[in-house]
Amino acid sequence: MGVIVGICVGKLDGAFDGMLEKLDPHSSYISRDKIENINEQFHGKFEGIGIEFDLLGGYITVISPIVDSPSDKVGLQPGDKIISIDGEDAFEITKEEVFNTLRGPKGSPVLLTIRRPGLEEIFDVEIVRDQIPIYSLISSFMLNEEIGYMRLTRFAATTYYEVSNAIDDLRKKGMNKLVFDLRTNSGGYLEQAVSISDLFITSNDTIVYTSGKKNQIIDSFKASPKKGYSDFSLIILINRWSASASEIVAGAVQDLDRGLILGETSFGKGLVQRQWPLRDGSAVRVTIARYYTPSGRLIQRPYENGLRNYYQELNNADREEILDSLRKKQTKFSTKKGRIVYGGGGITPDIFIPLTEYDPTISKIINNPKRLPFNWATNFSKKLDEWDDLINFTENFIISDLILDEFFNYINNKNLKIENKLSLDDKNYLKAILKSEIAGSKWGRSGYYQVFISNDPQVVSAMSYFEEAEKFLSFN
Predict the structure, then answer these.
(1) Which helix (H) or strand (E) covers residue 193, if one does?
(2) What are phi and psi of 52, to 5 degrees?
(3) How far does Cα 143 stand from its chain's mean position?
(4) pLDDT tens across 238-275, in order?
(5) Residues paired with residue 55 on neighbouring β-strands, in sequence order
């Protein structure tokens, strides 16, 4: 009987999916087992020990303890392997079993046995579970004495507070220019996108509005002049995977001439969904309206050629050239200052900065399931006791060619025959990855991102355009 029920449920799931797919690309059915995970991501908390992990060599391997989590407070480090949980062998544990054993109610203890790189003896540590925040702002720091940087990965329930607090902190450190990185941010809550936009816009202008089937305005959201900041210039970075709420922020900033948009043309998701719960705990999301930027631009790109083409075109190498030719047929809109912008296909950047393409060897190394740079860096960092300051490390530590050769020897000792025959640009990128992983091993994920972003070609390029971005300050 259980098998029959399972088949019926599976068929119903498929029926829902097929029916909703015919409406548009973003109407969807969400099964009961996915609802909890989605709610967790966007409500921003769960209860457990607080680690980012991967399964390497059969064991749970700590990639990084979450800041201020129980794991962070007891001193777990990147590279630590959990070899037993409450006395039970954890070798070849599955990810589902990890969640079931390490998560649990706040205040409950769990005993872990740890094997740490560089130590011969294993040791036990008891961790008391607590509420773990899921941050949407994964990195915030000063790139130099003037320029601040923030990387946002989603628009969740706590995003406004995270971003506003980070802006206050960066301004105290002397920030008068900001790179706001929304690359690969797939969106989230509309209200959070409006609130984040309001942090940058100090005029009494519309940030975004939604329109229904008969083109009537359903909702309109305005900025509050008392809420935002007008004392720093702004650059927003987007790419082809920046979608929905990310596009609302980028579109408002561009239309109202508050800052400069750099990178690639964004995804083009401008459909508003409403979610209805079903009795079995699952839900359906159905499109009820469309998003429009302040100038009246539709964010959503066409999807009449089917779902396969809709998603596949994102991977086209000549995507920007195709979009440029299509824009000649599109309606022109004007920003507040009178600049020409286009609608109906995502947010087009003011300045196109392409993704840097690297040798396939780089991808083979970075995407290897054994996490080669991470494991190598975890061991290598033990030799660097004299580097105890992240800023000093970021500015002065150099991955030499000898160190790079050492890394390739490490790879080849793993029976992976990958030759060190890279161009200068490819070598420099790989060196940046290795340096970032060393920083992550010593200072956690914040250290990783600070070093990685400081060497990110798009970020480095963006920093050279602040003279243009500053012109918007005088206009506003």
Answers:
(1) helix 190-200
(2) -90, 130
(3) 19
(4) 999 999 999 999 999 999 999 999 999 999 999 888 88
(5) 60
Domains located in the chain, CATH noted: 45-133 (2.30.42.10), 137-353 (3.90.226.10), 360-460 (no CATH)
Q: How far apart (Å, rounded) are the C-alpha atoms in residues 259 and 236?
A: 7
pLDDT category, 11, cuts 50, 70, 90?
Answer: very low
Q: Are 72 and 133 in contact (CB under 8 A)?
A: no
Regarding beta strands 233-238 and 177-181, do their DSSP bridges make them parallel or antiparallel, or are they unpaired? parallel
Rounded to 10 degrees, the C-alpha dihedral 4/5/9/10 comes to -30
Rounded to 5 degrees, what are φ and ψ at 342? -125, 150
pTM as predicted: 0.87
Least Cα distance to 408 among 432, 356, 373 occurs for 373
One-letter amino acid at 65 equals P
Q: How far is CA 37 from the centre of its chain?
A: 17
Cα–Cα dist 209/293, whole Å: 7
- Residue 218's alpha-carbon distances to 25, 211, 278, 348, in angstroms, are 21, 5, 25, 25
Mention every residue, 6+ apart, whose C-beta is less than 8 A from residue 378: 78, 79, 117, 437, 441
Tell me whether strands 206-211 and 177-181 are parallel, antiparallel or unpaired: unpaired
Q: What is the rounded CA–CA span in Å between residue 326 and residue 346?
A: 12
What is the end-to-end Cα distance of the chain in Å, rounded? 68
Please report which residue ranges of 381-463 form alpha helices under DSSP H.
390-396, 401-412, 424-454, 457-462
pLDDT above 70 coverage of the chain, percent: 92
pLDDT, tens digit, for every residue of 298-318?
999 888 777 778 888 888 888
Q: Rounded distance, CA 167 to CA 33, Å?
A: 36
Residue 195: CB atoms within 10 A of its CB come to 21
Distance between CA atoms of 471 and 468, rounded to whole angstroms? 6
Catalytic residues: 244, 255, 269
**Average pLDDT, stretch 283-299?**
90
AA letter at 36 = E
Count of residues in the chain: 476
Q: Which pair of tokens denotes residue 439?
A: 């920083």
- Phi and psi at residue 452, to the nearest 5°: -65, -45
Can you tell me which residue has the tokens 């206009």? 475
Report how far Cα 147 is from the mean position of its chain's Cα atoms.
20
Q: How confident is the model at residue 34 (pLDDT cuts 50, 70, 90)?
A: confident
pLDDT at 389: 93
285, 27 in Cβ contact below 8 A? yes
pLDDT tens sequence across 126-174? 999 999 888 899 999 999 999 999 999 999 989 999 999 999 999 999 9
3-state secondary structure at position 340: strand
